[in-house]
Design brief:
The protein is α+β, with helices and mostly antiparallel strands. About 55% of the residues lie in helices and about 15% in strands.
Amino acid sequence: MPRPLQLATLHMDIHAGNLLRQAGQLRLIDWEYAADGDIALELAAMFRFNQFSPAVQQRFLEQYQPHGYADLPQLASQVQRWLPWVDYLILMWCEVRWQQCRDAEFLRWGAALYQRFCLSSSN
């Protein structure tokens, strides 16, 4: 597991459905998965959940860097180190949700990750 660059409170579920605009400001809602952790883990999760392309990731990090973490190359490398862990978290989330509700959509979402990790899904 990567050693944290900088600890902060993480939301761990940043996507358009969890953003509200109020009085000209964005607010995050649904803090169900919040935890303390590495800022690069939050960024890796956001990039993966929202399917940011490498170019969009780079642009985001360039805008984030002046306000979040000074060493852009180190931050970008740390985000890359976290991506396999985020994939595993997503896979586990899909598996738990499948076990809870038996909705086949969760198996479809996790199918590529099952293959990437050389696992078979529990049908």
